[in-house]
Amino acid sequence: MASGKGIAAILRTRGICTISARKTGKFQNQVLLQCNDCQRQFATVTPGVDTWIRSASEKFSGKLLTRHFHISSRWSAARKDYYEILGVSKNSAAKDIKKAYYQLAKKYHPDTNKNDPNASKKFQEVSEAYEILSDEAKRKEYDTWGTTSEQMGMGANSGGFPGGAEEAYKHNWDFRASVNPEELFRKIFGEEGFKAHFSDQEDFADSRYGFGTAQEVIMNLTFSQAARGVNKEITLNVVDTCPKCGGSRCEPGTKALRCHICHGTGMETISTGPFVMRSTCRACHGTRMYIKHPCQECDGKGQNVQRKKVIVPVPAGVEDGQTIRMAVGNKEVFVTFRVEKSRYFRRDGADVHTDAEISLSQAALGGAIRIQGVYEDHTIQIKSGTSSHTKVRLSGKGMKKVNGMGYGDHYVSIKVLVPTTLSEKQKALLLAYAELERDTPGSVHGVTNKTDGRSSSAQAKQEVQGEGETDEGLLGKIKRAIFG
Fold it and tell me: Staple partner for 165: which of 9, 328, 407, 465, CB 3.0–4.6 Å?
């Protein structure tokens, strides 16, 4: 049967009233089953203790000095529910507890929550809960008393404080795990800790060219290069096989040996309390080989950062801002294009738009013009009477479609070019034409239209010429006025 001192020490920390006998050497401490302050009943007492209490009370009746202890609400509130922290039930198996810890440790690990100030605290709580519940003895104590002797700072005989359990009770308990959370994590999941299990970073050495491979490259193109496509050379950082060791990770002239820790299996057995698990070997990291003389160029990684020239095949018809993905070594690089604007072409997807100027005579009489196309020049037939802003469509003469078949269209906007300077002969011809124009509002160099549709100068000339004058005679006079 447990000693009175040990039982009283434990029950005193649980808030149960204790009584002490005076002038006796046999019994130093006895316990009651009811708290005199809160009248709380404690029915779950270790078997045999209640019998011992009753016998002690009968034997020392009238000789007992009662001392009252009451559990503080502050201590009760500070007590943690480790099952709730891990999100498991009290009857969960060891493997379920370990699985829950694995998921929560991954979620709250500081390496993935650098911007969350509470992540470190949560990771500490999860590690603390797992340390208690993963140990069979500590879990049994926790299930029985809601705490462990280690947490209360006392061993089997309450030796954690000079005053024993009574002195221990007076402290405000804020338990801290005896194992560092990172150390516990490494012990379970290997020496590489978090990164070895949850990080997808590749193992390579840096160099004078930088610490990693390029992720995205910006490439500038002219309009013509984007339209026709081009193979353009760029220089960027890539991760590739070490040129010194050829990927062997060993210094030239040496070779790797079989790992003496895992005996070439790549796995090792790790014991953590009641758990035994198989994990990747912490010495060879699963490679099964041990390198005594690692390559100095790549630090024994087998690959490092190198500066290389790469040819980027630019597809024809690429647009500004488009991105392509291409493999460079064993990595993927995203290439984003920046296409310069053309002074001549205006692009709308696969279609292009241009302007073409024609003269007054071409607009009135018709004709043909030659224009520049995206891939070749084109001849456009101008119909007589063509006015400004007339659009001509050249089907299939636009940009090549990158994500489809065929080509876009080329739209030509016609503009009638009005001359700003005229020779004397050109002025005379235009004046003669203006005199023959009908239904023209306003005036042209003093030639005013009459209500009958004829200009005043034309009417005067007709009166002078008489009825026998013909248009042919008028044209002859215009020619003589121009050419003499």
Answer: 9
- Could you give the 3-state DSSP secondary structure of residue 397? coil
Query: At 135, is the secondary structure helix, strand, or coil?
Result: coil
Q: Closest Cα partner for 148 from 167, 126, 176? A: 176
State the pLDDT confidence band at 373, using cuts at 50, 70 and 90: very high
User: DSSP of 14-67, one letter per residue?
Assistant: TT--EEEESS-SS-S-EE-SB-TTT--B-----TTHHHHHHHHHHHTTT-EEEE
The CA distance from 413 to 465, in Å, is: 45
pLDDT tens readout for residues 256-281: 888 888 888 888 887 777 777 788 88
Tell me the CB-side half-sphere exposure of residue 441, using CA atoms within 13 A.
0
Which CATH number describes the domain made up of 74-195? Answer: 1.10.287.110
Q: End-to-end alpha-carbon separation of the chain, Å?
A: 147
Phi, psi of 324 (to 5 degrees): -120, 155
* Phi, psi (degrees; rounded to nearest 5) at 178: -75, -10
Residue 469 corresponds to which tokens in the numbers above? 């004058």
Residues 6+ apart with CB under 8 A from 266: 259, 280, 281, 284, 286, 287, 288
Its sign, for the CA torsion 166, 169, 170, 173, is positive
- Tell me the fold of 346-416: HSP40/DNAj peptide-binding domain (2.60.260)
- Alpha-carbon span 325 to 236, nearest angstrom: 15
